[in-house]
Write a structure and sequence with these properties.
heterodimer, A: mainly beta, seven-stranded mixed beta sheet, four-stranded antiparallel beta sheet, 11 strands, B: mainly beta, six-stranded mixed beta sheet, five-stranded antiparallel beta sheet, globular
Chain lengths: ~110, ~110
Amino acid sequence: NAGVTQTPKFQVLKTGQSMTLQCAQDMNHNSMYWYRQDPGMGLRLIYYSASEGTTDKGEVPNGYNVSRLNKREFSLRLESAAPSQTSVYFCASRAGGRSTEAFFGQGTRLTVV
Amino acid sequence: TQLLEQSPQFLSIQEGENLTVYCNSSSVFSSLQWYRQEPGEGPVLLVTVVTGGEVKKLKRLTFQFGDARKDSSLHITAAQPGDTGLYLCAGSYSGAGSYQLTFGKGTKLSVIP
């Protein structure tokens, strides 16, 4: 069972470069999420997609864009990377209901120099 | 943005001791979840609580949901080194943004043999 797959696992960018983090789930889930995790900050929501065709901002959306390409895939784009975006990024999916379990990918460790 | 306070942030105890972790919000949760995260991995669900006053047990772990659905606690009895990890609470709220899943900053637990 693949679950939630994120690529890449590690990435180093120079300030100003752009990149897209990919996320795919094979559980037929409706909702998908992008979080970033920094030391002492827990998980902070960047963007989420409640269902295919919709996206909404979370707590820390500035500097990011997302695309819900289809039901399976939800990508996160950094247009012009900044050192403050150095973090571990997690993608998650849920079946949809508020009490349903969130399944997480293994994370992407991004360093911006 | 809903705020979810978790305490303590760090906890270091001896094997066999008991501990309690707290999660509080100024808003009412429609549901609350507890996750555990190991280094280099994404969080994994431990439990979901949805009813005020609800108590759930998972072996040595006891989860309580406050009557007013604004707070929750996780109690571990006779902690073992295998309980070491980051414990995160996550809440969903009713109304606009109800598909958001908001995380606390986490409690980093170390159980010393």
